[in-house]
Model the fold of this input.
Amino acid sequence: MSRLISLVKREFKITARNHYLFIILSIALILVAVIRFVVPAEMDFDTTLFLTSTSEVETVLDSTNYQAITEDSNYLQTREEVIAAMLDNNNSMGVALTVLNDKPHLELIIQGFENEQVINLAIASIQYYLGNIPLSNNYYINTLHEGTSIAEIPANLSVVPLPIMLESAMMGLFLIAVMLTLEKDHRTIKAYVITPGRVYELLFAKVITMLFYAFLSASVIVGLTLGFRGNWLQMLILVGTTSIWSSCLGLMIANLCKSLTSAMMPLIIVSLVLAAPVMSYFAPMFAPSYLRMLPTYSLMLGLREALFIESSSTLFYQALNYSALLVLVFGAGMMLSGRYALKGS
Done:
């Protein structure tokens, strides 16, 4: 244990000597400036509205309005079809019209991410679409994903989960790979191998160092943008597990590459793949299955839930389970590749 502590101290000295701390804090502050001053406070995305109705609705609606509804391109035959369509389109709402007390009765089906203002606007728009006829007062709102409603928050602050996701995943991936490849070039790895120290201790020391920097970066970003709002414990847990598996992945790549130059291409490719789900954050309607399979997609939603959604932990546990699995997989891969690479250096 004392040897591991000494190795951790050594890693901090190396990172400080190579200005990694300055780089990390600079990137964090740049991202804070982008959130505060570059990203607009208001964003507008069109929402798809899926419609369905019962045959009785025709008796209480003007024939012209009823015909316009049934001929709408998003009109579906049943409520079940509306829900299925909404599950495939995250940026959508559904309307099911029935008759109650001789008046149109509205069931608004929402994803669960919409705030009260969006819901009220949707109801008003639907009423206007139906010809401003009075709706039954006891209209019903059904939520597909319970407990996922986000409180009112400026658009520039709503993107805070993205830099946290990118920093926790990319920082460990890139910096730790650079650290290991540079040590290979300086032959310090060869000197360590002949000491009583074990390979896994050296690798764990690097992972622990990146874990500390991931916590530091996330705390700076959240602290200077959101303050103490949200669930910091859940946020730090996700940041920590992500930092661990991304660091293990970075060490795997570095172990399998002989130099920093040869490691750059796989590092860039992996980074681009992991960053791809950012598109779905700004355009929820674009969330194909291949993006939802990426760990950063569930991490992105889990961080958003931890920071903005107080009534649910569903997405947090999904992201945590995925990250925990990757910790085991990439941790084992790191050890196997490390034994081969370090002992052969």
Observations:
- The first helix runs from residue 2 to 17.
- Residues 48-143 form one domain.
- Residues 51 and 75 are 5 Å apart (CA to CA).
- The beta strands are 48-53, 92-100, 103-110, 140-143.
